[in-house]
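Incident log, structure service

09:12 report received: a user says their structure output differs between two submissions of the same chain.
09:20 pulled the input from the user's history:
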Amino acid sequence: MVLVAVLWIVAALSVIVTGMIQSVRSELRQVSAASQMAQGSASGGAAIAAVLQGLSVPSTAPRSLTVTDIQFQGLSISVRAMALNGLIDLNSAPLQLLEKLFLVAGELPGPQANEMAEMVRAARTRADSLGRTQRLESVEDLLRVTSMDYDTYSKVSELVTTDARGSGRVNVSAAPLGVLRVLADGNLELARRIFEGAQAGATGQDTSALDSALVDNAPSRRYLVQARVPLPDGARLLVSRWVDMNSGKADGLPWRIFHAENRLEPAADL
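09:34 re-ran on a clean worker, output below:
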């Protein structure tokens, strides 16, 4: 009986020790991941600051979407800078542009695309309890719009913004390929020609095939700047900063970051 009791005690201690080891290993992995994220965020922020220095000079700020490779502490970090009026502003885009968005990018049938556009317009003009017009505060607010499902949201979310603060029309020179495809009514060949021309710095591009009521080539000083930072485990950290180049702060920087996000991109997704 004593021997059986000893064996049970040894077995119980083995289970406890094994559990403790697994717990410590799990905590070490979490600490390592948190450390990688912190270092990646700092590296991405530094790379973004290097690009913002160029954007802070209006005469040299690029009009088109740009991708710059920044070397920082042995890392090659890709930084994409895009004027926010190259995206479709949910708060000010004309109804026709919203319809095109949901028809072409959202892949909704015509009547549904029209209904969804109307729902977005209703959401951005709804009055609060004080009679003030509400606006969509973030792209994620689309998920609160009546009839919006996640599948449609995932198809359009990368093409829209709520912070361009312009005319509501699209700056073709700054637009990514997906937005140009919307403007071109799904004509990918036309969209790619305009996109490649903008990337090559071409001036006076022929955009007559696009609806002129939806196009505005006015420059913007509001940008979305994103840095992809490689992590030791093969994943990447997407560091995103929404920046207003018109308003400096007391710290002396000629820009103001009004929104920031970090998102992990697993190695399997690359």
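09:41 both user submissions now match this output. Likely a transient worker issue. Closing.
09:42 reviewer note: The longest helix spans residues 2-55. The mean pLDDT is 86.
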